[in-house]
Write a structure and sequence with these properties.
The protein is an alpha/beta fold and 304 residues long. The chain is built from 10 helices and 8 strands. The chain has an 8-stranded parallel sheet with strand order 2-1-3-8-7-4-5-6, with helices on both faces. Helix 1 (22-32) crosses helix 10, helix 5 crosses helix 6 (133-143) and helix 9 (247-263) runs parallel beside helix 10. It is globular and about 50 Å long. The two termini are 20 Å apart.
Length: 304
């Protein structure tokens, strides 16, 4: 299974910043430890090109982002300090999702160990997200003539507001977001299907809602490819999550998504999205569970 990574491109951040940049290298280390037992093919992707990025983003915004011309207010909205290095990392992360989509179409499933930057709008960034890799990848794959319709399954605990806004008039990309009702972003956009859960929702409540949402969205989308944002932040000990899912429940979430897509004949490109547990190792554990579930799916093992 092809797994794309971008953690070799550093993100310069203040020492005590809340963004857990170390989770990416720790996750890749965990995967390297199983290479002898699992058929994994770790690759650095190429960066997304301007042409690919501009299918999702406003050219004035991209020019200003690339050249460091954003205002202090615009940078604060993202919550990450601007730097040429962080823009380069965003380009590579979007390229990794494009590569994962292409590999998934060829092999059934592939993984980007980053990505899921679903708060980026066409003309501005937000919530740790500069570029919307899901829409960039979806439209790049469509432009290449590889698919017509795409389903985005967003299981990050925060609504995929940027994604929903960018594709609101695009019937070829179906957006399904299951998220915390009372969580960021506090002004929600309208996805094709939104399931908003109350604070404290547990494994049972979440999985029942997800199963219904998957059935509805898969039927409605009639898609040729799915992009799965496998956020670790619905976890019960996530600093920003407000839900109450266990690691076991999150593993079942992954299996449910893979099983539902398998039954529908949908290839899956996986991105990691958010994860802010008090212990970064918990976040890495949850993302690693997702990778293992993808490997089971790729190798034809039962995802039930």
């Amino acid at each position: 299974m092809k797994i794309f990574y971008t953690d070799t491109f550093p993100i310069p951040l203040p020492e005590k910043h809340s963004f857990p940049k170390e989770k990416y290298s720790l996750l890749r280390k965990r995967i390297l430890e199983i290479q002898d037992s699992y058929p994994v093919d770790l690759q650095i992707p190429r960066p997304a090109t301007d042409e690919e990025i501009l299918r999702a983003h406003d050219p004035v915004y991209i020019h200003r982002l690339q050249n460091g011309e954003l205002s202090a207010k615009e940078v604060r909205r993202v919550g990450l300090p601007w730097s040429p290095e962080i823009v380069r990392r965003a380009r590579y992360s979007a390229g990794a999702t494009i590569a994962a989509c292409r590999a998934a179409l060829a092999e059934g499933v592939a993984v980007n160990l980053a990505g899921g930057t679903h708060h980026a709008f066409s003309d501005h960034g937000q919530g740790y997200c500069w570029l919307n890799d899901s829409v960039i990848a979806a439209r790049s794959i469509q432009a290449a003539g590889l698919v017509e319709k795409i389903l985005i399954i967003d299981c990050d605990v925060h609504q995929g507001n940027g994604t929903a806004a960018i594709v609101k008039d695009d019937s070829s990309i179906f957006t399904f977001s299951i998220h915390g009702k009372n969580n960021f972003p506090f002004q929600k956009e309208k996805s094709d299907l939104d399931i908003a859960l109350e604070n404290g929702a547990d494994d049972k409540v979440y999985l029942k809602a997800l199963a219904n949402g998957l059935q509805t969205s898969i039927d409605a989308a009639s898609a040729d490819l799915s992009i799965y944002l496998a956020g670790a932040d619905p976890y019960e000990d996530d600093r920003f999550g407000r839900l109450n899912l266990t690691k076991k429940g999150l593993a079942e979430r992954d299996r449910l998504v893979f099983r539902s897509c398998l039954e529908a004949g949908l290839p899956i490109a996986v991105t990691m999205a958010g994860g802010y547990a008090r212990s970064v190792q918990d976040t890495v554990d949850i993302h690693f569970q997702t990778v293992l579930a993808a490997l089971d799916f790729k190798n034809g093992k039962d995802c039930s």
